[in-house]
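Protein FAM32A
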Amino acid sequence: MSTISRRANSIQTPRSTISMETRAPTDAAAQKNNNTGKTAAEYGSVQKGSLKLKGVDGLSSGKKKKKKDKESKKRMEQIMNNQDDEKESKKTTLDKRTPAQIAFDKMQEKRQMERILNKASKTHKQRVEDFNRHLDNLTEHYDIPKVSWTK
């Protein structure tokens, strides 16, 4: 290439050399940039990638997995089994209620069973019929003489 053609492709300015290859943006691109108010050059300095935390020296963000100790597992199982056995033995031996309290609890259970059997003996239909008979036997003193003020 001759020096004339080189000069035609680039123009010398005091600050820098502007190449003719860098063209002005097309009409669509110019409108897009004008609408958003930002140019592509402003987005060129955006840092891409994951965020970096202060105080972390390039370590991976994941936690390190601990190696499982088989012996410690066995020890924990033995301890748990021993604790369960102790609890069961304590439950059977520790009954610090007085004889009166024991008798009271037995009577409560007995009465509760009687109530359950009484309720189970009648059906809902039978209960409704009994209630209606009871209402029929009441005196008219309990009846509501006037329900509405308009009649």
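thats it. The mean pLDDT is 73. The two ends are 116 Å apart (CA to CA). bye
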